[in-house]
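We modelled the chain as a single entity of 162 amino acids. Its sequence is:
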Amino acid sequence: MKRLLLTGLVAMLAACSSLPTSFEKPKVSVAGIAIKDIGIFEQRFTLSLRVQNPNDVSVPVSGLNAKLEVNGKPVADGVSNTSVTIPALGEATVPIEIVSNLGGLARLLKRGDNAAPSYRLYGKLFSPWKPGGIEFDQKGDLPALGDILPTGDAPAAKTGTN
């Protein structure tokens, strides 16, 4: 019995020694967005998140949740159960499906001034290392609608005939 208890204690100490002593939060940013499905009542997008690990040890991620605000208004949220290991001093791209309702999409498209809208992406990465998750909060500017929509100055499309 004593031998079993001692073995268990040694195993626990070994597990604790593998955890990093100083842990810096991974940085999460938007790498891309793609339309998945557009319906009358809700819209689904696949958001690609770039997760950068500034630590000298790999970080296992078992899932995440995220919320997206545009110009201070909630637009979409979602969850992902994709498991990935972020390599030490490296990065990985994690897909997450986000859902917006008609009101959220209308708020996004409502601006008529073509100014670059600001966004905020926040949520949690879930890891066995950090019970309760690792929070992230990133802010930035989206491209202005005028920068991504075609204008009349664009060259005419080729028809395939010469």
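As a brief sanity check on the tokenised model: Helices lie at 2-17, 102-109, 145-148. The chain has three helices and nine strands.
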